[in-house]
Amino acid sequence: MKPLAFRMRPQVIDEVIGQQHLVGPGKIIRRMVTAKMLSSMILYGPPGTGKTSIANAIAGSTKYALRTLNAATDSKKELEAVAAEAKMSGTVILLLDEIHRLTKPKQDFLLPHLENGRIILIGATTENPYIAINPAIRSRTQIFEVKPLSESDIKTAIQRALRDPERGLGKLKIKLDPAAEQLLTQATHGDLRSVLNALELAAKSTPPDKENQEIHLTLAVIEECIQHKALVQDKDGDAHYDVISAFQKSIRGSDTDAALHYLARLLAAGDLVSVFRRLLTIAYEDIGLANPTAAAHTVAAITAAEKIGLPEARIPLAAAVIELCLSPKSNAAITAIDAALKDIKQGTYGEIPAHLKDAHYQGAQKLGHGIDYKYPHDFNHDWIAQQYLPDKLQNKSYFQPKGNSRFEENLKERYQRLKTAQKQQLPPHA
């Protein structure tokens, strides 16, 4: 009676779907498993993307015992039982779900067992571990991001579940229409658990035909079981991504009616997640410094939409789309940061000037750190000319403002005035 998603969890590392940046040949978790040199880790990412599956596969591949607890609901007593088992029988892998909710008493009990290696902790969380998890735990673990599964990953998992006669649905004679399979791969945003649960519900609630005893899973059947309407029915299966792409490009191109059309398609499919992500990206990537208030309005519209849900969510989202379409545009921010990142990736960054280095520790002065730093607030206009960029980047100008609105024109003038003052060692208001 266990659900399909549970039964299809990988038993060894080779069965893990997706996450090749962690479990692929030569990657970090596969190296740990191959060498049997496991270290405690935190896996973070969206629901249904394989955090528990990876823990299960690690245990199956290494033959270590796997115990599963929840940091929010299981008590210290359960942790003590795992520790006692590890002391008696050797290394135990502890999958600790919702690790961001681990209390300090439980943490204090757990830390010594992580130190001596008796317990290999695999913490699972949907929260950002750098914000939500205590530094004491973070410092004793490696942190790995688990990413949403790709469309091809989902298809692989579906076909595996349909073929497997022991753990999957292989004993049933199932015909899954291509359009229905496409909806499964697209509508759940990489959440494999939702995909497999919907597939099992569809298979077990659809009567077989009398002639061939075949269970025919059509698009309509899958739509009903997944409670998600198809965006467009096309044989290529690219419609979902085409609509999202057309949505952003229409806003970027200031075509209000086209943008509203594609918003309507996404809302009809119930795909609020894609709408939210695109609008936030557009607000900063395509409008940016030409109209910073548009970004604030977009965040407010998304917050309202999340709180009220569909169908009312369409109202604030439409307002945001119209404002973004009619707003002046500028991509100066994204081009500036991309130019800076390009230098970093190419190894062009140089030594931080000594006067900017941290001077808040004993011995910093002996190293010459922070000695000649000039505190801008001690000077007229709260500004003083001094070097900030490394020597090899002294003349770099990443920011290329376009001046497509009065606000951005003011930024452009001030940026150029400050750059000139910095080069000439003169006050910017001189």
TrEMBL record:
Protein name: Replication-associated recombination protein A
SUPFAM superfamilies per the UniProt record, alphabetical: P-loop containing nucleoside triphosphate hydrolases (SSF52540), post-AAA+ oligomerization domain-like (SSF48019)
Keywords: ATP-binding, Nucleotide-binding
Source species of the chain: Liquorilactobacillus ghanensis DSM 18630
Keyword Nucleotide-binding: yes
GO molecular function: ATP binding; ATP hydrolysis activity; DNA binding; enzyme activator activity; single-stranded DNA helicase activity
Gene Ontology terms describing biological process: DNA synthesis involved in DNA repair; DNA-templated DNA replication
Family: Belongs to the AAA ATPase family. RarA/MGS1/WRNIP1 subfamily.
Gene3D superfamilies in UniProt: 1.10.8.60, 1.20.272.10, DNA polymerase III clamp loader subunits, C-terminal domain, P-loop containing nucleotide triphosphate hydrolases
Record's keyword annotation contains Nucleotide-binding: yes
InterPro entries: AAA+_ATPase, AAA_assoc_2, AAA_ATPase_RarA/MGS1/WRNIP1, ATPase_AAA_core, DNA_pol3_clamp-load_cplx_C, MgsA_C, P-loop_NTPase
Domain (AAA+ ATPase) ranges: 37-149
